[in-house]
């Protein structure tokens, strides 16, 4: 039997899903070494991103409290629920950990990048953070961070610094009572904490520059090219006027920087949300006064304000809609937001680009409490060398 050249074997393996590759590690030592090699992992990731764009292979994950799944105490259990954009391969993974004997009070996703999730788990005595890959179901417990009890989380994200092959997480907290006596945010002090994967530690950062931004309405993180982005506004200290900006977290210098200001159509009177669609930053815009529907725009050239392009309009939509991913060339998977623009409804929608129609896409996940959906690509990125199982 003729042996295939190594280049062809590598190419074939790089096309396979992570679940299969995890099994193929056991075929032989050379295959195990190849699949575990960081260069192969990055090559597989690049191909996964290419395949997922405009394809039916996008994956979705949400975290919430599952009805009907009870611990012995009678409390509802928190779970991670994932599926692909076709609604197939649905799976519920209960969040449990040996470090905590009591039930989980709250769980949330702080950020995602390259198929890896940063998850915050709060229990009655304390809290913990984990890095988790839903494709391989491998996780790593990382040190928890500590903040004053009078501060609340306003934004978070996870990014990848490619030059050092290092993942970094960022969380920003603000006082629970943000408004000053003048009704402005000028004297507000934000607390930023940064997680460094290589050092496996959190670093606190108090910087006056953060006070120039208001993060309080920036729930939505959009990760492009491994960098997390948010929409914030800057306060003019003279007249307290607001200017909306898209900022990103510089992973190398560990500070926030302005990418661009919002275009003319992204005015204060509109309800808008930042996201990612087709590997580009996108914004869904709903005018508070107009019945024209929801406009979806994409920044075709990263960092260039003039490159915003209107992709499509969802007509007659009176609620906040947020595109999650394309389904082929004809459809877009849409999430419906509540009035505060913070959480999603239980089900998703599908918008047909050619027919301009919406239809329901039921998730059937039976959540009594639920949070945002996140899209991700299936990857081999491992939380650590010796993984725990979740």
UniProtKB/TrEMBL annotation:
It comes from the Eukaryota. It comes from Corchorus olitorius. Residues 1-48 form the F-box domain. This is F-box domain-containing protein. NCBIfam families: F_box_assoc_1 (TIGR01640). SMART domains: FBOX (SM00256). It holds the Pfam family FBA_1.
């Amino acid at each position: 039997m003729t042996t295939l050249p190594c280049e062809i074997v590598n190419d074939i393996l790089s096309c396979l899903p992570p679940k299969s590759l995890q099994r193929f590690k056991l075929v032989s030592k050379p295959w195990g070494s190849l699949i575990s090699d960081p260069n192969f992992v990055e090559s597989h990731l690049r191909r996964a991103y290419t395949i997922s764009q405009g394809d039916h292979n996008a994956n979705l994950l949400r975290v919430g409290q599952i009805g009907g799944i009870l611990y012995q105490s009678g409390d509802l259990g928190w779970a991670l629920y994932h599926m692909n954009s076709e609604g197939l391969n649905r799976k519920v993974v209960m969040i449990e950990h040996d470090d905590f004997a009591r039930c989980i009070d709250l769980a949330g996703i702080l950020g995602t990048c390259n198929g890896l999730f940063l998850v915050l788990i709060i229990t009655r005595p304390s809290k913990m953070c984990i890095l988790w890959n839903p494709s391989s179901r491998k996780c790593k417990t990382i040190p928890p961070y500590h903040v004053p009890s009078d501060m609340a989380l306003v934004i978070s994200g996870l990014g990848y610094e490619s030059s050092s092959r290092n993942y970094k997480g960022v969380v920003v907290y603000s006082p629970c009572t943000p408004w000053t006596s003048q009704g402005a945010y000028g004297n507000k002090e934000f607390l930023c904490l940064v997680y460094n994967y290589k050092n496996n530690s959190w670093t606190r950062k108090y910087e006056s520059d953060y006070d120039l931004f208001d993060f309080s309405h920036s729930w939505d993180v959009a990760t492009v090219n491994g960098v997390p982005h948010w929409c914030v506004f800057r306060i003019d200290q003279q007249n307290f006027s607001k200017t909306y900006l898209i900022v990103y977290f510089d992973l190398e210098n560990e500070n926030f920087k302005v990418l661009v200001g919002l275009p003319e159509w992204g005015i204060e009177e509109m309800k808008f949300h930042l996201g990612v669609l087709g590997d580009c930053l996108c914004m869904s815009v709903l005018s508070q006064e107009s019945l024209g529907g929801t406009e979806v725009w994409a920044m075709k050239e990263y960092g260039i304000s003039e490159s915003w392009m209107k992709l499509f309009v969802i007509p007659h939509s009176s609620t906040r809609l947020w595109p999650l991913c394309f389904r082929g060339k004809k459809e877009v998977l849409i999430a419906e937001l509540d009035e505060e623009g913070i959480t999603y409804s239980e089900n998703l929608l599908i918008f047909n680009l050619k027919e301009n129609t919406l239809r329901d896409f039921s998730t059937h996940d039976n959540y009594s409490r639920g949070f945002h959906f996140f899209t991700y690509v299936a990857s081999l990125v491992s939380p650590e060398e010796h993984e725990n199982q979740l």
